[in-house]
Amino acid sequence: MMTLTEYRYSDVVHRCFRCGYCKFPVNWIDVNNCPAYARYRMESYSTGGRLWLIRAWLNDEINWTEHFAEIVYACVSCKNCVEKCPLRFNIDIVNMIVAAKSEMVERGLVPSTVKEFLENVQRQGNPYGSSRARRGEWSQGTGVEQYQGQEFLYYVGCVGSYDTRARQTAKTLASLLHKAGLSFGVLGKEENCDGNEVKNLGELTLFEMLAEDNITQFKALGVNKIVTLSPHSYNAMKNDYPDYGGDFYVYHYTQLVQQLIGDGKLDISGGFNARVVYHDPCFLGRWNEEYDSPRRILKAIPGIELVEMERNKAGALCCGGGGGNFYADFLSGSENSPARRRVREARATGANILAVACPNCMTMLEDAVKAEDLEDKLAVRDLSEIVAEACGTE
Amino acid sequence: MAEILVVAEHRRQTLADVSLQMLSKGRQLADQASAELLAVVIGRNVDGYAQELARWADRVLAVMNEKLGESLAEPSQKILTSIIKERKPSLVLMGHSSFGMDLAPALAVELGAPLATDCLDLFIGNGSITATRSIYNGKVNAVYSFIPCETLIVTGRVGEFPIEDWDKQGEIEEIDFPLEEEFNYKQFEGYIEQEAGGVDITQAEVVVSIGRGIKDKEHIELAQQLASELGGVVACSRPVVDYGWLPSERQVGLSGKAVKPKLYLALGISGAFQHVVGLKGSKMIVAINKDARASIFSLADYGIVDDILKVVPLLIQKIAALKG
Amino acid sequence: MDPLYQSLAKIVGEGHVSTQTEELYIYSFDLGTTEPHRPDCVVAPRTMEEVQEIVRLANRDEIPIVPLGGGLSLAGLAVPFRGGILLDLKRMDTIIEVNEKARYALVECGVSQGQLTSYLERHHPTLMHSEPGAPPQATVAGNLAIHGQGDLAQPYGFNSDMVNGLEVVLPTGQVCQFGSCSISAGWFTQHPLPDLGLFLGWAGTTGIITKVSIRLYPRKKILGAGMFVVEDEELVPEIIYEITHTEMAQDVVSFSQAIPPFSSGLHHITINLSADSEEELEFKQKMIWDDALGEYIRRGDGGLLGFARHLQRPQVSKTSDWRKGGGFEYVGAIMPVERYPECYRRGREISERHDIPYTVLGRVIGMSHAMMFSWTYAFNRADPETIRQAREALHESDDLALELGGAIWKPGLYGQKLVMERMDPNTLDLMKKVKQLLDPNGIMNPGNWEVA
Amino acid sequence: MDIVTCIKRVPDTSDADIIIDASQREIEGDTLAFKINDWDEYALETAVQLKETLGGSLTAVTVGPKEWDDVLRRALAMGADKAIRVDEDMITADSYMVAGILESLLRSLSYDLVLFGAQSEDFGSGQLGIMVAEMLGVPHVSLVVSLQVQDGIARVKRELEAGALESYTIELPAVLTVQTGINRPRYISLSGIKRAMTKELQVLSLSGLSLSQEMLAPMVRLERLETPPTGKKAEFISGSPEESAEQLAKILQNSGVF
To answer: How many Å apart are CA B223 and CA B234, to the nearest integer?
Structure first.
């Protein structure tokens, strides 16, 4: 019945035993490390449940329903399962789920918020459906230059360009890079979606188009080095764009800022007095194994006491915002929502600052802090904002 | 200017408000242009309606036929064509209601008359008529003129023209219209009331209404909490019903219900007129919307420009705190 | 809307109950070869009170109710054979108390083995519980309901021998506590009150365990395992006797498997050791390798394959991928250790007859009073023929276990029938009376342990 | 059963600043993105579902310049077998003219059912479908929210005011205009659009249709565009979500809401 695409994993998908290792972090502290399972606590929402349901759908044992689609789309591509599954096909778990999403995309059968997300990207180049013309608005009054052959292209991404809170982060990072004397420019309203979430929502052809368009544009402008605000952009550009001929030097800003501090280009002696806990973004951590740069930055800043949550690095709990879910939003509405679990865990360390390095995590966790009524105890700050304060630019 | 003709509509023994709105506008125009205002009402038994219409109209044509039932669009088209051809009114007015939407375009084609639908306003000057319509999501108004013609047909936006009180005591002319045509190709099967789910939003003192900005059905619980805190009910705009997140009995607006609460709290509602028309009776309107340019803000008493998912949880807390 | 759904939603909240196809589908399956059966409703309570309300409702309307923990028993013990309510207990996952000095932990029924192990490691590093070989999402309480054994079985016996107290919701909705907790706040002992042990080993057919206090044991600083390999299966029972005689070993397991081929036919005896100091470790090692096993090594009957620190837990679910197929099931039987050679030979024959790479394992229980001997059969979930083969092999293994004088552990329906056919009629009759007394409407996990 | 669905392309004005250009008759279009009219998407989904259950053909039709091909491609990707574009920029036309063109085109096609969106997002006149029905001399129902077809008869429910519906049976061929919410239009993937590139898209010129000169002159003319008068403006409560929530709560309390 696979009329549209050949399901690439039909010889693998039945191999999941549903042993449940994928529900745990690296140790066994908590059975709630799969964001979807943590939220719903039904076997159907666990990774194994999802794979079994996908197989049942492909075998015509169950029909497509809105609920089924929501179960599949409740996977936010955090890769905890890939990290935990003891079996050899583990590297394909997220791929198997994305392939099922892709099948739904091809059949036109996606939940309404996913449909909106993808149509908005098709039409306006961002998931919010905001006008393309507004994409550069965040930089108004900052003096940030349009990219024209500077050393670095500063790629901001959709969330940094449109989300009110993330726009502040985008600005702060720009001022920080400026202070460090870095030669960089932005694309403003010429910037387009990076496609990372589009890919994880299963719209692979749209992703290809975005990747190809971006690569063509970057090459035409002579781009060689890219620094991204979002780990999601970083992931797509570093790992996927080369498949389409896009060979650029791609940095997540934490990697660059760490280097700039090391080179003495940023003077952080102003310090930052706080007990800080760092939340690993999935697309920097598990997807790209970058656990150290952000921590090195925090350790270097005078006045910071860096603490860790019990679930950290490869065992970190996702904020629930990956795979487009910061918009599609299948995991909110409960104290069991991963973002709310995560801020409770952060608060339990006694930290008063929850440091993030991703605009998606920022919006998810900041909302969760409010929902948990922790605003006077725990503030969510982007690493760039913490560094900027230590540099005295804020 | 010759006559101005207003087509009155009624359904299930009730004369539509929009007909009185159109009569009020027609009255103004007729007085301005020294024209006669004619109302036409069609049905099996329309005496009562005719009396009512005569308060505005100089003359009421009460067109009756035993064969006329509940569904009147097609017979009305035949009857009106005949009347209009005979009397040549310079302007035919009716409401842009489900009745008018079905009837006016067909009538215009049959008569070869120009048609402007869903108009916000009408002007007569220098012997010609211009009509104003709202386009592009209410962001632009367009002014239209018409080629010289015997009769112009206009439908007016529901709720846009206030009902003004008149007591014209116009003359009522009963006409027994012979209907030869049968309309067998289209059979009326009855009315369907939406399921009664137990919540009557029209009687609520506080209405917490959600729109597209709620983003996910999971979040409706938030609105429900806020409504409980304020002792109100949850209502919604059309997209929420279209997505299947709330039953249609909760819909406020043209195709939904009209509400008249003490407080109407519009959450993530942009303010399309089809919605707004249902909440105009509210004493106090508060809107929360991310988009500062949303048209709901031109109607609201108070506005907050922000994400409802951020503000509403806090609002619930604050209200609870103030209540002690 | 379904009235059952509505009643249950009132008890647990809408998010924790489902009558939708997707949940009914997933919860219809056991992970082994048992045919699926759909429940009418899946519900995940958070508190004992919610369980109580659900059970009262089920009992009033005579709706079957099937409790589920980690769902890893594999023998179809939590399959809703008669439909009804599937009760997923994993949300009840609070570790209520760890009493370090009295060495016990009081947990809710949904607490997983992994969660407890990890909690103890972080907060009570000198204590451990007897964690079974199942994946870490297996629950502590579920394991008691099937008389499980863990990695302290060798010195201390079955996990169900380690219970200090129980809280149970009876099929009629009353809540009972057993042990010292029934007369005081302390959950430190089950004995010496009159014995009411009506729930352990009953696979959820007599009530729903909602809280359990289990014993904890000393956890030493250094953990390690040695592996001793012999070719002759006849030697395994006496080697185990020698090892257990030293009283130095924790877990002692002998296994043999077809994969990888170079070690097929060999018997690997793993011996877990723990110590608080290098001296203690050295002493224990010497006792085992030199005193107990030295003679076998000298004769060339067997060899030490090495000793590893930082014990890695075995990941049994890997067996599921042997036929690239996501499935395995095993028959476990409690056997005298001396039966090891026959268990191995006959089991290997069954496997080979059904084209399945053989895997057998004997875990020593309680100073080698017995062993849990398992015959494991992998299958390919996508290939019905391999499932059929595995199912046949399992039935043959049930027959074999009884033939060799063993008792089948957590038998499925086929094994239960065999056991009940052989059981002393008076005992069987008593079982029936107990069941009728506790569960007059027969709502609890029907199909399982039904005395005809 | 043969179905024709008439669709149009509209600017996405939900988040855009609409700027009236110097002529005061058009809006500035260079920053606008375009899309298929929302109502038409529901009409198409209705048609595709009917075709999936009853078989037959589905033709998507539009009247517009070359750029409008993109909405036809979407229609083809959704499940239309064939698309026809009458190549004419109708920006200064009235509904009557477009209806005339469609009438002429439809007379050359085989159809049992013609579906329109009940109105358009941009101009929102809600006239076109009914005009075409009248010109063709076939029965019509507007604002359809439910549709079943069996044995040449359509059973429809039509939306009235105040949440009520009315139901009809209507003989085919007929013209229906579809209201939003009748179904959930499927997502059109980019690869679906690419695959649809192989389907037939026919372009006709006006001269290929037999139209009288009279039909090609508008009866309704756009005089000018205006910025709508700003109504009473809300009093804005500003600050962080926390602050604005606090203020609003106090306002509600002071107004005696609680």
So the answer is: 7
